[in-house]
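Sequence, structure tokens reproduced for absentees:
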Amino acid sequence: MPDLASELARRPVTAMFADTLPAAVAARAATATIPIVFAIGGDPIRDGLVTSLSRPTGNLTGVTRFIGELLSKRLALLREVVPKADLVAVLLNPTNPNLPTRLQDMQAAARTMGLQLFTVNASNESDIGIAFAAVVRAGAAALLVVDDPFLSGHREQIVALAARHALPTSYYGSQFVRDGGLMSYSVQSSELVRQVGRYVGRILKGEKPADLPVQAPTKYEMVINLKTAKALGLTIPETLLATADEVIQ
């Protein structure tokens, strides 16, 4: 990725869009002058991309999804759906650069809910089956999948294993649920892309990244697969069904 960012900087392009933290870090290292608009899951101050959300310095600005806060919300929703869950498994990719802060956020949220977390790792295809076997052996009552591009690429395998082991699972994207997963809570991706597009457009018209505050998402969506819930023997609270953006029958 640093090589690709450097190639763009040499052209030079008018602006760059970085869709992950590693991409944003690589772009920042490649140029201090070309405007960079990022969309990341963490805290851009903590990740060293900007010094202020309201008035970024340098040539970077963008949108942050604050995944840590979303993980806490997803954990609370999962507890609401599986109220007797005391041990919740967490599937994650140990090579994800955002992992340390996301683990901290999840552990803090779990403590406030009186939950224990059992983490399992997967960074290649064979790891996924091994991780699910470990979750079953541990007796976890539910599973939360942490946002990660590798795990997204193995969406069908993860959903199938969750069904095979009758494991209520919370996901970070609606497509998991449309493929048969139980539930998801996430930023509405179409709106996030529009936010990024507006910033790129304003920069192309002459505005500077330093004058464009880092934005947070404005729209979220919850999707529940009622068919999967019934197969798992779960009764989804009416309050959740009423507030869900999509209920798959």
In short: The two ends are 42 Å apart (CA to CA). The longest strand covers residues 87-92. The first helix runs from residue 2 to 10.
